[in-house]
Amino acid sequence: MSISISKVSFEHYEPGAALSTDAPRISWRFDGDAKDWVQSSYEVAVTRNGKTNTFKVESSDSVLVPWPDTRLASRERATVSVTAHGKDGSSATATAEAEAALLNQDDWSAQAVSRPAFPDGVAKRPFLLRRRFDLKAVPKTARLYITAMGVYEATLNGKRIGDHVLAPGWQAYKYRLAYQVFDVAPFLKEGENELSAWVGEGWWSGRLGFHGGTRDIWGSRPSLIAQLEGDGHVLAQTEEGWEWAEGHILGSELYDGEAIDTNVSVGEWKAAEVLARPQNLVAPQAPPVRRTGFVPAREIITTPSGKTVIDFGQNLVGWVRWNKQVDGTGTVTIRHAEVLEHGELGTRPLRVVKATDTVVLGGQTEGYEPTFTFHGFRYAEISGFPREVETSDFTAVVVHSDFERTAHFESSHKELNQLYSNVVWGLRGNFVSVPTDCPQRDERLGWTADLMAFAPTASMIYDVTGLVGEWLGDVASEQLDYGKGRPPFIVPNIPLPGQTQIQPPPPVAVWSDVATITPLDLYTTTGDVGLLREQWASMKAWLDEGIPRTESGLWKRVFQFGDWLDPRAPPDDAANGMTDPTLVADAYLIHSVRIAAKVAGILGHEEDKKRYQAQAEQLLDAFHAEYVSPNGRIASDSQCAYVIALQFQLAKSEEEAESWAATLERLVRQGIFKVGTGFASTPFVLLALAAHERLQVAYRMLQEGECPSWLYQVKMGATTMWERWDSMLPNGDINPGEMTSFNHYAFGSVGAFLHEVIGGIRALEPGWKRIAIQPRPGGTLTDAATSFTTPYGSVTCRWALNADRTIIKATVTVPPNTTAEVTIGDQVQELGSGTHVLEGAWKDEGEWPPAPITYFHFPGDEKKSTYVA
Ligand code: BGC
């Protein structure tokens, strides 16, 4: 029986990160197995400049409590010690350092420095910048505040500063440019010092987007902004007096790859040019992009045409590192791809992206990694290598925003475990500072519906709150700046094909509904009302101004992506699915308006709450008039129509909901348990079946092994989630559609069903102060273990059925300072913190396997049941 605090944190920053707020809210997370532990009060002791102020608060709050002391000044450091007292008299203490970053734009005196302008419209070769400066004495404390318009990698006296890569990442740069803060005291020395950095074009000036893309979206001059301070003085900063030079990096583009010549050393140093510093620098809550894993080469393959290809065994995002010194002459070329098609590198899905790194041999290769590019790949084709390639020659380096991992899932079902792994890897590959659609082709863009669909799953697997919260801020900034209330469907927004500048977007449902749906999802995971407050203007603008409406208040018929990529949509027309796209838009509209009413209530905007409640009722009537027959059929006879109608509670009576669930069941059985949903409805299909007493039908669909289904991908050897249900066709051809990625997370939204229904873990209240634990076994599963690190500590549920599936045994852990409503079979109880071993009688919720419905077949032609047992 112990209690301890495992983590003290500020807002949603990673530990140790400098803060861009002067009154950071404080959270502490618990560890230990203390039984029924409830906090009765807490103390926060804040030590600044050797003086300690202690604040005692009678409260059970331990998440995002207000900063108790006077506000922090720019650069100020405070030691924050938290003691949590339990009702049982026990207590726990932990400490963290809070450091304010540069809180005001005028704390910056640095300018930006760059090389002379590049000619128009070219890819920009990375360059070096440096400044030498003398120090009479090494300061006691030193901080480097640094960023780039572009991407940078800095060194001080030859030593690499920090472990960030592709810093400062991508933001909607017009509104904010992230900077990093490093403690550099250990790198400084008496006498001459040298601060230097490589600078590349990155997202700032690099080519972005499809159909050729656009360069220089935010500016054509990659540049560095750095301010080095020691003991309260500026020691060096980007201004007049810097120099620039070229070196061994001949070119580096995000999409196309990097070229280096190991024979080239740094060229002549010339005077750098000074540019204006942007006025929107901010220390981010999003964790930086780092190397988060290393995957050894699994196999060297000789392809049918005689090429040498390394298989890393896992589709991932990052690059290839050279492990050894390779002597010789000529150029080694590394081409990256996610799949092999009939044994050869499958590069067609990359469209125009080259995804190729080249290395001219002659100099040092050991340890080489590209600096300012990244690739989505499992396979790397090597040509020009001076000898046979060995598996020990190269390692794949995994790169993404370095979040804390917070959920795990495992079960008795091997393929399901692989599916979960694919969901996790889909997340890892698509959070390189922005939540993106895919990491490999000429997009890698912040498509909003992709994140909207995946956020509930993502926000459990990793702590994505800091990043997604800031990205939602970018959604709001862009939307409110353009006027008309429409959030762009790509954030950061970029010019679309045919445009030379960023344009206000057309209105489109589901994608723009990210403005209402995702803030509420994040609130559910974190309990952070602040996130709702920040997004409130964006929610309102979308609903009040953004949507072109008919007199009834429903959507006018305009272009919609609809239930994008449902499996019946033709390969070349992903929006042309089974469900009327305006019906999809209208169902989402009602859902969004109800969310706005709820959020208005939470924020205390009573007038808005009433207005949105009334509007939701009117819209519901209009929806029924438009799409629901008097006997309760919905206008599109598709899984999607019934799934979203059920999930968004559009039925007017329980009987109607039941008849919809029965129709959905019919459609699923008639579809022989193949998935029939796209982006708009896949996140909910299994949840809707489970919520309406069709649990076994949900399991049957989940366990289906033929295309289209989740496990079809697994059976085809997928190690990430695919964009299309059939990105790879059963015969091994890559889907002929021009848009075919093997790393798209939207269909990974099935993770919510794994966590909540199989795993049985769900927030009963936003923020997890009250938890529901209720595993619902089904299909052929016999056990599962799921965990999630709530804001209070870890909740776990490990269950197993006996051989005849009549008894369920479970070990559950409830985190300190929370309570859980625990249902294990027929046993329901309210439990406090601690580890509990429980048992109940179990009866499967329906027949297994549920039968398909077929209407006509010749004897012997019966459609076979094809689930993966
Ligand atoms: C992207 C998507 C996105 C869609 C919208 C695609 O090219 O990869 O995932 O949501 O376009 O049209």
Automatic annotation (TrEMBL):
<dbReference type="InterPro" id="IPR008928">
    <property type="entry name" value="6-hairpin_glycosidase_sf"/>
</dbReference>
<dbReference type="InterPro" id="IPR012341">
    <property type="entry name" value="6hp_glycosidase-like_sf"/>
</dbReference>
<feature type="domain" description="Bacterial alpha-L-rhamnosidase N-terminal">
    <location>
        <begin position="139"/>
        <end position="291"/>
    </location>
</feature>
<keyword id="KW-0378">Hydrolase</keyword>
<dbReference type="Pfam" id="PF25788">
    <property type="entry name" value="Ig_Rha78A_N"/>
</dbReference>
<dbReference type="Pfam" id="PF05592">
    <property type="entry name" value="Bac_rhamnosid"/>
</dbReference>
<dbReference type="InterPro" id="IPR008902">
    <property type="entry name" value="Rhamnosid_concanavalin"/>
</dbReference>
<feature type="domain" description="Alpha-L-rhamnosidase concanavalin-like">
    <location>
        <begin position="302"/>
        <end position="400"/>
    </location>
</feature>
<dbReference type="InterPro" id="IPR013737">
    <property type="entry name" value="Bac_rhamnosid_N"/>
</dbReference>
<dbReference type="Pfam" id="PF08531">
    <property type="entry name" value="Bac_rhamnosid_N"/>
</dbReference>
<feature type="domain" description="Alpha-L-rhamnosidase C-terminal">
    <location>
        <begin position="760"/>
        <end position="837"/>
    </location>
</feature>
<dbReference type="InterPro" id="IPR016007">
    <property type="entry name" value="Alpha_rhamnosid"/>
</dbReference>
<dbReference type="GO" id="GO:0005975">
    <property type="term" value="P:carbohydrate metabolic process"/>
</dbReference>
<feature type="domain" description="Alpha-L-rhamnosidase six-hairpin glycosidase">
    <location>
        <begin position="405"/>
        <end position="758"/>
    </location>
</feature>
<dbReference type="GO" id="GO:0030596">
    <property type="term" value="F:alpha-L-rhamnosidase activity"/>
</dbReference>
<dbReference type="Pfam" id="PF17389">
    <property type="entry name" value="Bac_rhamnosid6H"/>
</dbReference>
<protein>
    <recommendedName>
        <fullName>alpha-L-rhamnosidase</fullName>
        <ecNumber>3.2.1.40</ecNumber>
    </recommendedName>
</protein>
<dbReference type="InterPro" id="IPR035398">
    <property type="entry name" value="Bac_rhamnosid_C"/>
</dbReference>
<dbReference type="InterPro" id="IPR035396">
    <property type="entry name" value="Bac_rhamnosid6H"/>
</dbReference>
<dbReference type="Pfam" id="PF17390">
    <property type="entry name" value="Bac_rhamnosid_C"/>
</dbReference>
